[in-house]
Amino acid sequence: MVYSSVPPLDDRSQLIREHMPLVDIVVQRMIPQVPSFMTRDDMTSAAMEGLIDAANKYDPTKGAKFKTFAEYRIRGAIFDEMRKLDWFSRSLREKHNQLTQTMLKLERKLGRSPDEEEMAEALDMSLEQYHETLAQVSHLGCVSLNETLDHSEEGRSFLDNLVQDGGPTPLEQIESQEMTALMAEVLEELSKKEKLVIALYYYEELTQKEIAEVLGVTEGRVSQLHSQALIKLRVKLLNNELYDE
Q: Per-residue pLDDT tens for 88-105?
C-alpha cells in the first residue's frame, strides 16, 4: 500500500487486522518487564489500544514500515497502562529517586559513573543492601526510560534509541547527531557486564533467565545489573539536560 498521507479508514482497519498477531508477540516479549500482578489480559487490552493508535497515526511518507511503528506504539501503550495502574508504591518511587539523585551527585563529583561500592557507601548501605534495593526498583527503572525525551506527538524515549531492527523508524528520522553521540557516550559508561545485559535484553531480546545462563550468574544478579545500567543511562540524560524528570 502507498499513501500520500494518513491511510483511509478502510486501509487502517486492514492494517489492524493484518497486524493482530503483533499484539501477542509484543505482549509475550514484555511479560518479564512487568509486575506479576499485571495480567496478560491487562497487557493485551493496552496493546490493542496501541495497535489502533498506530493505525490512526501512521504516516508512511516518513519511510518506516507499519510493523516497526506499531511495535513502538504497542510497547508504549503497555507502559502507559502500567503507570495508570500505579503499581509502584510511594516507597519504591522514593528509593528509585534516591538512587538516581545519589548517582547523579556522585557522577558530577567524580566525573564518571560511580561503581557499586561507591554507591553503597554514599547511601550508607552495605553492598548487599544496595543490590537488594536495585532489584526492588528494577521495573520502575525500565518504565522511566520508556518515557519520552520530548513532548512531540512522536516523542522518542531513550530506549527507542537503543533498540533498532536494521531499518529507519519514525523515531530515528528525528534523531539528532547529538543524540547519537550521547548514546555512544552513555553506553561506554557502563561496565562490561552491564553492556552485555543491555545488549542481550534489548537487542537479542533474551529473558533474564537466559541472560543469567549466558553470564553464569543468578537471575537476581541480572536484575541488579539491569536496574543499575538503566539508572546510569537516566542519570546521563539528566546530566545532559535531555530528560525532564
A: 667 777 888 899 899 999
